[in-house]
Amino acid sequence: MRIQVDFKGTNYAVDLSSPIDISIPLVPGSDGPNCFWAPIFDAQPVKAGDWIGDVEQGGGVNFKNVQINPHGNGTHTECVGHISSASVSINSVLKNFHFVSKVVSIYPQLMENKDKVITYHQIVDLLGDDIPEALIIRTLPNGSEKQKRIYSGTNPPYMDHKAIQFLVDKGIKHLLLDLPSVDREEDGGKLSAHKAFWNYPNIIDTEKTITEMVFVDNAVSDGLYLLNLQIVSFELDASPSKPILYIMKKL
After folding, report:
1. Residue 144 contacts by C-beta under 8 Å, 6 or more apart in sequence?
2. Can you give the pTM of this predicted structure?
3. 96-119 per-position pLDDT tens digit
């Protein structure tokens, strides 16, 4: 199936039969991807007396309980409920699922304190004039080991809150990146980047989302894509998610 997308007065063709999945598959019992010391993702068969929900073990069907921490186990999308004292769910705020997006690649800069940070100037230089609804940040280098990386205790790269504020000022509504958080792993609870993105606790924009721990393969070029941001209908602040990209070609 092919559709047309109008972005800022220019028409693009999109082939919906050629999706690009930028979520990270989760394998029960595997160590990664994982961050913030979360329990590993796991799935175990239900047992009831002599019955077991596992065909390989003699059950009639596979029937398993799943253990998952959305923030700590792989690709997830979160809303302001992640930092708010008020209960706000991702299912209640994410009502549209298709957005024009832009993929950009960035080498986080090494700072004097040895942190690696995506800076304000990097974002300004890369965003350009075509400001989409969603921005997808691929950090470099971009090895496949990101799909199984254990981030806990490693102080991974993060974003300068001034860079986040620039995105807010430019109208970015959905931010996706291949890091475990927009903020430093241990920042004393400041959460400066999260707060800047949602303008918390002032006039909060509840419709915005942040998606963390995506994986954008090196075969995917920087540029514009149609994004389909899929979530589970969790009444929680975050949900495991499956962002899908589609190439946009000018007509």
Report:
1. 215
2. 0.96
3. 999 999 999 999 999 999 999 999
